[in-house]
Amino acid sequence: MMRFWPFAAFVALAGFLYVGLSLDPHEVPSPLINKPAPAFTLPQLHDPAKMFSSQDMKGQVWLLNVWASWCVSCKEEHPVLLSLAQQNIVPILGLDYKDKNEDGEAWLRSGGNPYTLVATDKDGRVGINYGVYGVPETYVIDKQGVIRYKQIGAVTRENLQKKILPLIAELQAK
Amino acid sequence: MKYLLVLLICLLPAFSYAGQAKDLAEDPVLEKRMVALAQNLRCLVCQNESLASSRSDLAKDLRQEVREKMKSGMSDQQIVDFLVSKYGDFVLFDPPVKKDTLLLWYGPFALLMIGLIGLVIQLRKRKTQISEVVLSAEDAQRAAALLNTPKDPQI
């Protein structure tokens, strides 16, 4: 019996290491979950004279998708966002993060525009307030303006079906 | 001509100095305070680098944010709290002791204790397994004979 213990300890350690391999160290849990989304007012991408305020979205469930024309993974999630926008389930607000207006506009013109509206965060200050550390990042914000979920990295069809859409349905029913 | 060339070569290091330390703010005291604070904060993009040494864009922005917060009169602790509220404890190289981090802080000691307890149990067990062997009279005699062999005078 005693001889069995070192083997058991080895198996346990190997198990920890195996789980560790599948974890992504870049996914840092956000402390903003279940906290009010930081309010911001920023110029719109397509009409910089007009402002967008996060307060305008009070009363509805919405997605805040942080993207940029220079961001590679954003191109990966783009078709997913486009098909979500076509279904008209939830408004997707874009935050063009540290980007040039002309680059952002050009990208949306060529790749399609899934966004209800795009605001521009040129110096990244709003990004800091939202704890953005790598685009793309997507926030699910509820009717009261509370962040309910944060997707770090590209939104995939899989986590849209499994996590984001059920959560939206639940929040909209409230 | 030759001397002029030598003089020019001697002057070369002076030119190489240009372009250094661009990130430095106008206020060296503030910069020192910022660097001291940022050394204990993690850059979230290149995670094993500190905010002070990282060259990523986000680190640059965050350093600027820290500078501005210092200028506006916030204390170091307030700035750290702000960053933690946005990015979580992960930005701290020295994570605080709390419910979530108990295992991180005391796990190694717990493992050490388990090891020590195991060792003590093992040693006690072994003690009971080893019984005192009493030599029989015959064995004692043999031992005495082996131990007391007269030395060979030739060696």
From TrEMBL, chain A:
Give the UniProt keywords, A-Z. Answer: Cytochrome c-type biogenesis, Disulfide bond, Redox-active center
**Which molecular-function annotation in GO is an example for this chain?**
disulfide oxidoreductase activity
Q: Name one Pfam family in it.
A: Redoxin
Give TM regions. none
Q: What is its main location?
A: other
GO CC annotations on file: outer membrane-bounded periplasmic space
Tell me a GO biological process for this protein.
cytochrome complex assembly
Claim: Disulfide bond is one of the keywords in the record:
yes
Q: Where, subcellularly, is it found?
A: Cell envelope
The domain of life is Bacteria
Q: Which CDD domains match?
A: TlpA_like_DsbE (cd03010)
Q: Which residues form the Thioredoxin domain?
A: 31-173
InterPro entries registered for this protein in UniProt: Periplasmic_diS_OxRdtase_DsbE (IPR004799), Redoxin (IPR013740), Thioredoxin-like_sf (IPR036249), Thioredoxin_CS (IPR017937), Thioredoxin_domain (IPR013766), Thioredoxin_ResA/DsbE_sf (IPR050553)
What's this protein's family per the entry? Belongs to the thioredoxin family. DsbE subfamily.
Q: Which PANTHER family match?
A: THIOL:DISULFIDE INTERCHANGE PROTEIN DSBE (PTHR42852:SF6)
What is the protein name for this chain? Periplasmic protein thiol/disulfide oxidoreductase DsbE
Automatic annotation (TrEMBL), chain B:
Signal peptide positions are 1-18
TM annotation in the entry: 103-121
- Pfam families from the xrefs? CcmH
Query: Which InterPro entries does this entry report, sorted A to Z?
Result: C-type_cytochrome_biogenesis, CcmH/CycL/Ccl2/NrfF_N, CcmH/CycL/NrfF/Ccl2_sf
Does Plastid show up as a keyword for this record?
A: no
Its domain of life reads: Bacteria
One GO biological-process annotation of the entry reads: cytochrome complex assembly
- One Gene Ontology cellular component annotation held by this UniProt entry: plasma membrane
Q: Name one GO molecular function term.
A: metal ion binding
Q: Where is the CcmH/CycL/Ccl2/NrfF N-terminal domain?
A: 7-147
Instruction: For this UniProt record, give its keywords in alphabetical order, as a comma-separated list.
Output: Cytochrome c-type biogenesis, Heme, Iron, Membrane, Metal-binding, Signal, Transmembrane, Transmembrane helix
Q: Does the keyword Heme apply?
A: yes
Gene3D superfamilies given for it? Cytochrome C biogenesis protein (1.10.8.640)
Its family remark reads:
Belongs to the CcmH/CycL/Ccl2/NrfF family.
* Function noted in UniProt: Possible subunit of a heme lyase.
The molecule here is called: Cytochrome c-type biogenesis protein
Q: Which organism is it from?
A: Candidatus Gallionella acididurans
